[in-house]
Amino acid sequence: MRVDRMISIIMTLLDKKRISAQQLADMYEVSLRTIYRDIDAIDLAGIPIRSTPGVGGGFEIMPKYKVDKNVFSTADLSTILMGLSGVSSMMQGDEMKHALAKVKSFIPEDSAKDIELKVNQIHIDLNSWMGNKSIQQYLEIIKVALEEKKLLSFEYANQHGIMTTRTIEPYQLVLKSNHWYCHGYCLKRKDFRLFRLSRMSNLKMKKKVFIARAYQKPQLDFTGTLETMQTKIKIRIHKSIMDRVLDYCPYEDFTLDGEHYIVNFPFIENDYYFDILLGFGTKCECLEPLHIRNEMKQKINSMATIYES
Model's pTM, two decimal places? Predict the structure, then answer.
């Protein structure tokens, strides 16, 4: 508790011109002796504290040490707070709370309401509506492993459901398209790999510390590659699933047809894209090309056979 209290005292001193020992004691519900001991420790840590005796006196950080609050504009502070608030919804921990407290300490009193209004105009919540409850726990484990440069071991399911045991050197946490990944060097494959957290199980941090190697950033932008691979197919959808289809293509590709829409849908001939169409259920029909329509019929018949048996 003492470290948290001392950090909070530093934030308070950065935010205020001067504050008395009694006010600090009342604020943190500790004795005056504890406050004086904390102030001495903060001063020894290299943050110059000045004490002024008498009426109106108290403790303050020497003016030359303080950061000028005007160095950040209202827009700067609003942007930083929006980003930190969004990340803190997933990345919990004292360091995130302290970072938010530090940024808030730079907010001038006359701008506080304006900044609060701007921050509330955009809300970022990275938590999923539903899903794997272990993701949050895994994020915390990986975050510690990144900081301490320790190996991670886990069971991993590939896209075909085959489980393998992996040990990796973690180098980066990645949030891509609402999914969390850990990018690291896989000791089994002898190469860098991107591992999706939802496919992990039994994640553990090992005691062994690794020596960081030359890092290769993951390739995350496949826009150009996908565009060259995709073709447009024609599907007919009921208007009740229009919002779901809009996740994959713009409204310009929709043509109203009574209670339905005819959609020029971007498509690659692999299981992932066929599963997308199947996921729309009876509200979607593939019209053309004929060979994709026939492939859809085969997949639907195969599914029906499972339930008939």
Answer: 0.55
